[in-house]
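Risk register update: the risk of archive-format incompatibility is retired. Evidence:
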Amino acid sequence: MASHRAAPEHTHPDDVPVLTALAALADPVRAQLVRELAASEDWSRSCGTFDVPVGKAAKSHHFTVLRAAGLVEQRDEGPRRVNRLRREEFDARFPGLLDLVLRGD
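Archived output:
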């Protein structure tokens, strides 16, 4: 019997409090995920392609936090879950915040 995953829930950046956004970006693993996504084409990276120093369950948790903060959108393509950084929407809500994280200062 095939297993079916529920579609991930997404929070629009307009509905994200600033402290939620800051907390999501403050974690080094999540900041690395965001940097790698920013350097990739939309929908080109599946969750398993990120080289972060955590296991699969922890990585899944980090993506859940990023979705809840309005930073990442995900969709399922066959067995893969692919990702898109919601750069334009997030920048409209929090101008300049993502640029600071991507610079790595």
